[in-house]
Amino acid sequence: MPYIVNENCIKCKYTDCVEVCPVDCFYEGENMLVIHPDECIDCGVCEPECPAEAILPDTEPGAEDWVEHNRKYAEEWPNITRMIEHSEDASSFDGVPDKFKKYFSEKPNVLPQEPPKTSQLFIARKFRNFSISSTKSCVVFSLISAFGRDFPAPLWSKSITL
Length: 162
What we know:
Layout: E1 3-5, H1 16-20, E2 26-28, E3 33-35, E4 55-57, H2 64-74, H3 90-93, H4 99-103, H5 118-126, E5 127-134, E6 138-145, H6 153-156, E7 157-161
């Protein structure tokens, strides 16, 4: 009995449910979320988190059509694993009838790419190799310079005890 997202989510797209999902089975379209029915473990923790009451078990009346809708778009849209800001007008679309016919978009949500952090740019420009060695109690990061020479140990090796 997987859970599904129905048309109540369209144009609301609250992501409180995503934050509590233990298996990351939510996928994000331009204006709604879906749950991949084959990935959902039927735990039900997402259902009470949805302010729009858009999440239901697939055994609810009318949910049969939404199972295939969720499956189709979960295979096309990107996975979402953390809560994001909802649109400012989300509450004005809560409870609006026939949202699927009026507003549904098949487009995936295209997130702007975050620029790399300064440290990532430094590593990418200065080093050609970045390796991680790990044991049960220690992780060692080693950097090799762009010129192929090793740096003195205090500059190129960092150990972190777990």
